Amino acid sequence: MRFEIIRTENYEKMSLFAAQKMITKVKENPRSVLGLATGNTPVGLYKYLILDYKTTGTSYKEVRTVNLDEYIGLDRDNKNSYFTFMRKRLFNHIDVKLHHTSIPNGVAPNLEEETVRYDKYIQKIGGIDIQILGIGHNGHIGFNEPGTSFKSRTHVVTLAESTRNANARYFNNIDEVPTHAVTMGIQSIMDSKEIILLASGTSKAEVIKRLVYGEITEEFPASVLRSHKKATIIADQAALQLI
Ligand code: GLP
After folding, report:
1. Catalytic residues
2. Ligand 1 centroid to residue 193 C-alpha, Å
3. pTM > 0.70
4. Which end of the chain, N or C, is surrounded by fewer C-beta atoms within 10 Å?
5. How much distance in Å is there from the Cα of 170 to the middle of ligand 1?
6. CA–CA gap between residue 77 and residue 84 (Å, rounded)
7. Is the pLDDT of residue 1 over 60?
8. Contact at 8 Å (CB) between 174 and 164?
């Protein structure tokens, strides 16, 4: 096992620790490229970035951000799009320039072109300095479901039923949950210079156990992180209870 594990007492401390790492990175290099994630887990991290911005003024004017994924078929201003999520949870509250933020376009007329464009854009801006990840209960990262090739680049995916069910809580009913998404591929994620995977709560304990002790296999996408040169798990005690 090559990744480092940081164990925190609770969700708040996990979020604060991760925020401090990101802030240090931005202070060291104000032109950093930050890879961002959605889901519940990173919300606390974003809260602490905003708090730090408001109290100490860390500037994001030169920072660029790229997000992992987006649903297909939801307009950008749909309340459940990741575009809306990121504006509400982070971008509207710090001084990042909106044209420096990038999320795959899930309503692009040609999705194949969009996936190619997205990888090219990441390369053009110099690659991701630090990528934040959450983890799905089946080990997905971004929306890379079990069975996705470790060599994959940004691509269109069919969401696993378990993923749609898990995300149904944000929608009125399961039928409204999109069936497809665009996600950064596993290789696109692995090309990041540094990766931080966040996990919190008892419901993530099994998946973290498998990540730490299980085999490295495409059937469990997050396991690829074990072969990354600089990956850290920052998780709370509840998520690490089986470690
Ligand atoms: C979604 C996202 C993932 C996220 C995962 C876990 O499916 N596409 O990027 O890591 O859910 O979400 P949560 O943090 O809410 O548990």
Report:
1. 69, 138, 140, 145
2. 21
3. yes
4. N
5. 12
6. 6
7. no
8. yes
DSSP for 62-95 reads T-EEEESEEESS--TTSTTSHHHHHHHHTGGGS-
CB contact at 8 A, 80 and 164: no
Pocket of ligand 1 (CB under 6 A): 37-41, 68-69, 134-136, 142-143, 163, 167
Beta bridge partners of 180: 158
- Rounded to 10 deg, the angle between the 11-28 and 43-56 helix axes is 50
Question: Could you tell me the domains of the chain?
Answer: 4-236 (3.40.50.1360)
The pLDDT > 90 percentage for the chain reads 98
Stretch 82-102: mean pLDDT, rounded? Answer: 98
Backbone angles phi, psi at 122, to 5 degrees: -60, -40
Q: Token pair 């887990």 is at which residue? A: 41
